[in-house]
Design brief:
17 helices, three-stranded antiparallel sheet, PORR domain-containing protein, 40% helix, 13 strands, single chain, alpha+beta, PORR_domain
């Protein structure tokens, strides 16, 4: 792997001494000299959209609604719902009147409408593919509990008080790969790692570590720097405190902004796992270190998540425990080359923070089993309804056959004939934009346009 800095040397070359008009020279002599611009990163910056991440969130907005509907169906007796009761039950999820039926019909690979053979009433249930995806996600969630324990230990170690609220972890349990009953299956199951301060109210419960493990106090970015040190040796001294920076397409970078980022990359900072309560924060140098430490904390927090993304509102829950700034959105906009904030989903009220270096062309560079299992649901959501119609035609054709021919083709054969829960390449309409499309050239653009710190194999 290789980290390098791309600069434009033209900024440091002296300008050519060409002849200027006399009027321009007189103007320069009589006018006051403008003050030099500051080389610090601007506090307030406009957000530059990256449509790749926004498209990712558009798909997740659909899958989020689908998951709510799935949970509603699974909570019913026999895991079926009468079609006439869909609107009534869907109002609990925020659906409008007569919207639930149309929503179910939009995703025939997830939901199935069928007629009861005796009652002659329409019912709604999950398809076999949806059940397989749910089972796969449950198995992946159970298998990665040891990793989730490590992530939770590192999360508590980043707290300045050595403990963290149970309610805040419960709200973000999906992002950190924790099961719904993590209080019993993770915290109480591992008493050698965690200590739970019980209380009458859930909001007053705290998680504390029995003993801190120094081997876990290593950030993900530090591991990358260590690899670079081993490869480059003394030449890697410039990356000692640097982060991987890759600005979004269309981000305007001026001369002074380049210099400001260049200087910021070399500012030393304290580790997110280091206790800074005893340091004097009155000096300007200490404040700069704390600002960069906040970037390192959010960077490490995103690395602890399963999909390397989390909502801004859930990061705010850890603000007091991790010494993060009050205006988180403005703070993250200062570092758009490291993080990306997407406002898609929930009518712009939801802000999702992505770790830019972790994604390439809409996919995680280092995927895990739980991420892949969750992506299966997105594949079912994006799959063309045309294939579902073809499946139903084949199954109905199968019913007309004799008993001696029923073994040749059936529902199991039709649904398993398509690899990886999805159809062939011709049947995956719209899935390329989510799974394999070009996502704003995170890795391909910007070497000659921006000052990037790339990580390549």
């Amino acid at each position: 792997m290789h980290i390098f800095f791309a600069y434009s040397s033209k900024f440091f070359k002296p300008k050519s001494k060409s002849l200027q008009p006399i009027s321009l020279l007189l103007f320069n002599l009589t006018s006051t000299r403008p003050m030099s611009q500051s080389t610090s990163i601007p506090k307030k910056m406009e957000r530059v959209r990256d449509h790749g991440y926004d498209n990712y969130m558009e798909v997740e907005k659909k899958t989020r609604k689908v998951v709510k509907f799935q949970d509603l169906i699974l909570s019913q007796p026999n895991q079926i719902i009468q079609a006439s009761r869909l609107d009534l039950l869907a109002r609990r999820l925020g659906f409008k009147q007569h919207e639930a039926g149309a929503f179910v019909l939009r995703f025939p690979h997830v939901f199935e409408i069928y007629e009861h053979p005796v009652q002659r009433i329409l019912y709604c249930r999950l398809t076999r593919k949806a059940h397989l995806q749910i089972d796969q996600e449950k198995r992946a969630l159970t298998a990665q509990i040891p990793d989730a324990v490590t992530r939770l230990r590192k999360l508590v170690m980043m707290s300045n008080t050595g403990r963290i609220r149970l309610e805040h972890v419960r709200i973000a349990r999906y992002e950190f790969g924790l099961p719904d009953d993590f209080e019993y299956s993770v915290i109480l199951q591992y008493p050698e790692y965690f200590r739970l301060f019980d209380a009458d109210e859930t909001r007053k419960k705290y998680i504390e570590l029995v003993e801190k493990d120094p081997s876990l106090a290593v950030c993900a970015i530090e591991k990358l720097r260590e690899i670079e040190y081993r490869e480059k040796g003394i030449d890697a001294e410039d990356i000692r405190f640097s982060f991987i920076v890759n600005f979004p397409p269309g981000f305007k970078i001026g001369k002074y902004y380049r210099i400001a980022v260049w200087k910021w990359q070399r500012v030393p900072y304290w580790s997110p796992y280091e206790d800074v309560s005893g340091y004097d924060m009155r000096s300007l140098e200490a404040q700069k270190r704390m600002e960069k430490r906040a970037v390192a904390v959010i960077h490490e927090l995103l690395n602890l998540t399963v999909e390397k993304k989390i909502t801004l509102e859930r990061i705010a829950h850890f603000r007091m425990a991790m010494n993060l700034p009050k205006k988180l959105k403005e703070f993250l906009l200062q570092h758009q080359g490291i993080f990306y904030i997407s406002t898609r989903g929930n009518h712009g009220k939801l802000h999702t923070v992505f770790l830019r270096e972790a994604y390439r062309k809409g996919e995680l560079i280092e995927p895990n089993d739980l991420y892949l299992a969750r992506r299966k649901l997105a594949e079912l959501v994006l799959m063309s309804p045309r294939k579902a119609k073809m499946d139903s035609e084949l199954v109905s054709y199968h019913r007309d056959w004799g008993d001696d021919e029923k073994g040749f083709i059936g529902r199991d054969h039709v649904e398993n004939a398509f690899e990886d829960f999805g159809g062939g390449k011709d049947d995956r309409q719209g899935s390329d934009s989510y799974l394999g499309g070009d996502y704003g050239s995170d890795a391909d653009d910007g070497c000659d346009k921006t000052m990037d710190v790339h990580l390549t194999d």
